[in-house]
Each structure stands twice: as C-alpha cells, then as structure tokens.
Amino acid sequence: MQNPSEMLTNLRNSFNSGKTRSLQFREKQLNNIIKLIDENTNLILDALHDDLNKSKQESMVCEIEILKNDALHMIHNLSQWTKPKSVEKDLVNIMDKVQILPEPYGVVLIIGAWNYPLTLAISPLIGAIAAGNCAILKPSELSPATAKIIAELLPKYLDTNCYKVFLGGPAETQELLEHRFDYIFYTGSTRVGAIVAKSAAKHLTPTTLELGGKSPCFLDTTVDIDIAAARIFWGKALNSGQTCIAPDYMLCTQEVEKKFIEAFKKAQTKQFGQDMKDSPDYCRIINNNHFNRILGLLEGQEIVHGGNHDASQRYIEPTICVNVDPNSALMKEEIFGPILPIIRVDNAAEAINFINAREKPLALYVFSNDKSIVNLFEKQTSSGGVCVNDTIMHFACDALPFGGVGNSGIGAYHGKFSFDTFSHQKAILEKPLDKFGEMLQSVRYAPYNDGKIRTLSLLTRKRQLPIPREYFSQILLVLFGVFVSYLYFTMMQKDC
Fold this sequence. Notes:
Helices cover 47% and strands 16% of the residues.
C-alpha cells in the first residue's frame, strides 16, 4: 500500500539533507532519464500503443525524442542557470551585492495527463529535477499501460529517496492533495484544475495548471488552402484529436469553408489512405466514456465530412460540422477528439470578437499571409500562445514558454521556463560592514531631519541613465578611484 505521509516524510528528509542541491546529483538523475528511455524504448512504445494505439512515429516524436532533448537541454545549461544573477542597483545600493539566486522549492507534486502519458508526466519531472527538488509523480490512471511502465522503471533509474511514483485514481489523488507540498504541477482539464487549485490553497501552495480550452483556428483567402488544410488536418488528427492544443474549431467565410472542406478531405486521404480505420498511424480514443462523450457532441449536428466510427475499436473518423450553433454543446466544451466545427464569419474582426467573447484559449491559430490580419489576432486577442500558418508546432519550440492564461491555465514550462517554474527566485542583498559604507548608510538613522530626507530622495530616485545601468556601478567605482588618485597626488605635490 502507498502511504502519502510516509512518502512525504522520506522525501522531506532527503531534500533537507541537501542531496538534490548538488549539480552533479541533478545531472546524474537527468542522464539516467535518458538512459531509461534508451534502454526501454520498445517497452514504452508498446505501452503507448496499448493505451492509445499510438504509432511508432507519433510516440518517437511526441513522447520519446522530445523528453530526451528536454533532459539534454537541462544538462547543457544547468551550471549557468543555477548561478546567482546580478541585477540593477540604485545609488543607495551602489556598494552592495544585489543578486537573485534560483533555489528549489522542496518537495513537489506532479500530476500527469493521459493523452500524452509519458511526456506530460516526465517533462515536468525533468524540470523539477533540474531545479533541485524532490518529487512525487502521479501518472494518469486513464493510461494504465504507460502508468505501469513509469511506476516500474523510474525506481530502477532514479534515486528512490528523492523521486517516487504514486498510482491511483481520483480518490487516491484527492488523498494526496490533502497533504502539504511545496509546489504542485497539474496537467489536465479545467474542471479538475479548479479542484487542484482549491486543495493547494489550503496550504498556500504555489501551482502550475496546464489546462486546455477551445483553441480557435482562423483561415482566410490569402493562403494556399491545400497547404493550410494539410497542417490543420494534421493538428486535428494527431493523437485522434486528444491534444490540449488541437485546433478546436474553425473560423472562416463561407467561401473559404467550401474550399477548406475539399482540401481537408484530400489531406486525409494523402496522410491516412482511403479508409482511415485501416491505417496503423491513427490513434484511438482513450476509453469508452470519452468515445461516447465525443459521439454525443455530434448529436443534431450537420456533418459534411466524416462521422464514421466503430465502438469496438474506439475509432472515430475526423469529422467536420457546419452551420454550428455557437450555443450548442459542441461549442461549449473542449472537444478533445477528432471533430472540427466550422463557424462562419464575414471577416477577421468578427472572428476576433467571437474569440474574445469566450474563455481565453490555450492556443490560437491564424492562417493568413496578410501581416495586418496576423497583427490584429496577436494584439487584440489573449491566449496561451499564438501559432501562425501552422498548428501544434509552437509546443515543440522550447525557447517559448508553454502555458495558458485565465481558464486555460496558470504558469508555463518548457526549456528554461521549466527550470524557472520549479525554482524560487530568492532575493539576496549583501552589505559591507566597513566604516565608509556605514557613513553613507547612516543617513537613514534617527534623529530624522529635512536634510536626511533630501539625501535619501536623491539616492533612491529612479533616473534614466545615459549609459546602460548594468555598467553604472563599475563606471562609478572607476570615477571614485580617479578622484581618490587625484587627492593623493595633490597631497603629494603639497608635501613636496
């Protein structure tokens, strides 16, 4: 039996020992994650296929290679990221050392998701390890084969006193959330995200919530429709639409709609053949509950493409719906499946108004070669991220933060942003205790008077400097040295 209290006590003792603060220790654990993946690739591929019918290519690209590169990126940059960083100083602090030191939070909880069951569990764990934390990892119970692999393999490669795997369903997760953690990282639905946030609030625990929402996709007449449709189809068909940043619905004119539907059909045939059900490259819906939920969204809808399904395989063909009522169930919740509703708009301004009238999405897609249109979407809408003339691919760029805003999430990760997410930015001010420094600082002491107020105001006032602020202290010290030298030589000349 898993005992959360015992797990946490063990992890806190390990963290308090200082073990995870060592860069060598962190790098070893990160290298062991790479080793775990390399030595067990076939087992991982089998588990992902069992859970979601993932093809080898989808698994390699979206689950395996992305994690190896994530770990390597941390290893290559860890020594630089963990160094204290000097910051700008005012005159009042000119003699002081002013720095920001990234430090680990302590013991963190990571709750993974089922749609990318390896990546969305291990990627945040990589960030937590890099930042020097201990962690409990809770894989999703809805992808049992992958959860089992994680539970079996991680203890063989990582330090079991610092990193533990906790298995279970909603009840076990709720039990886990009753305990105090130093940070919680959750990936999943907005509904459960609210539950996690409420539990974290009891202990004032900071959180990152990677949620989702209805990510819109705008398409206009300025683009090559065939290329745009191929990229939109790929983003919707990937993982059978079970991707938090899949294009959720289309916004376009009636003229574009007709051309897009035909191009979408061609893209499907080109990528998956005449009968998509026979393709080994197309995923399946995770379970019967989600299968029935997705089919339920199609009730009463006007289907112009797709709609074929097979309950025995949990197969649903990519499906396009038109003349969709914006107030229907299909438009009220994140679809998280291979259905693409089309909402007709007359222009970009109407599309922007439609988007802004709803919750802020995790991703927003704009297909246009008109830079003025692209700028409108970038500046007049709010979303976790914007991807122009493609779908999904901004997720793969680790130089960009990945995360939501408002209803689509709190916080971000990927690359250095993962390290920063799991690091507390500790402020450090070091003052010298010499008499000259004390003379300068004594203006703050009582008894107070107007002269001291004027001096303090002069020292603390924000100024636009003619030189970069980061060089100001060095230049001031040089000038001070010149002044002291001048006094010294002046006194020497008098003595002579």
